[in-house]
Amino acid sequence: MTVAEILDWHLARYPLIQAQDIYKLLHQGVFGPGHILITPSAARAAIEQELVQVVRTGPVALTEPIDPTGKLVRVNLAPLPPTTAMVERLLEALTETVEIIAQTATATELADIMRHRLAAAVLWCRRSLPLQAAFLEKLAQDADSAGFPTRHHSAVYLAAYHPAYRVLLSRLWLGSTP
Fold first, then answer.
1. Among the listed residues 162, 155, 134, the one whose alpha carbon sits nearest the alpha carbon of residue 21
2. Using H for helix, E for strand and C for coil, what is the string for 5-53?
3. Is the predicted pLDDT of residue 130 greater than 80, yes or no?
4. What SS3 string covers the chain?
5. 139-177: pLDDT as tens digits
6. What pLDDT is stored for residue 175 in this prediction?
7. CB 131 within 8 A of CB 16
């Protein structure tokens, strides 16, 4: 998939997506979930709580594309059972994802990938979400200057979609039954 194809996929499912959400999506597809794993016990508690409290409003894709290489995906929590076994499976995959991502590329290489993907996303926005293009371009410039920090979803996206997922290496998730 290309960046444009990933963004087309998300726009079709989340038509209220904002520049901030696009940035977050691309950031996750480059840097993975590192910011969410503070300690294994905190990550476990967050997964347990989210699996129980997730808003289940209808059919949701189990995984969502976030990385043109297919290496990383978002795994939605809504379709998953709130069992101890599922918590352990998610925690194990999350921990391994963080460790592997940290070993695969330098900060400079990741920043270059992020710049390239953001540039592609700005072009996509000009065509598909023109009202968000200038916001994304400014966000990309500011983020580059700040070292590409993580961002939260926009308030619009949070209110409309109640996102609950974990970013994982696709090979640790896909091909096995949740």
1. 155
2. HHHHHHHHHCCCCCHHHHHHHHHHHHHCCHHHCCCHHHHHHHHHHHHHH
3. yes
4. CCHHHHHHHHHHHCCCCCHHHHHHHHHHHHHCCHHHCCCHHHHHHHHHHHHHHCCCCCCCCCEEECCCCCCEEEEECCCCCCCHHHHHHHHHHHHHHHHHHHHHCCHHHHHHHHHHHHHHHHHHHHHHCHHHHHHHHHHHHHHHHCCCCCCCCCHHHHHHHCCCEEEEEHHHHCCCCC
5. 999 999 999 999 999 999 999 999 999 999 999 987 544
6. 52
7. no
User: For residue 52, is pLDDT > 60?
Assistant: yes
pLDDT(178) > 50: no
- What confidence category does residue 102 fall into, taking pLDDT thresholds of 50, 70 and 90? confident
Residue 18: burial class (beta carbons within 10 Å; 0-12, 13-18, 19+): buried
The rounded distance, in Å, linking the Cα atoms of 109 and 31 is 11
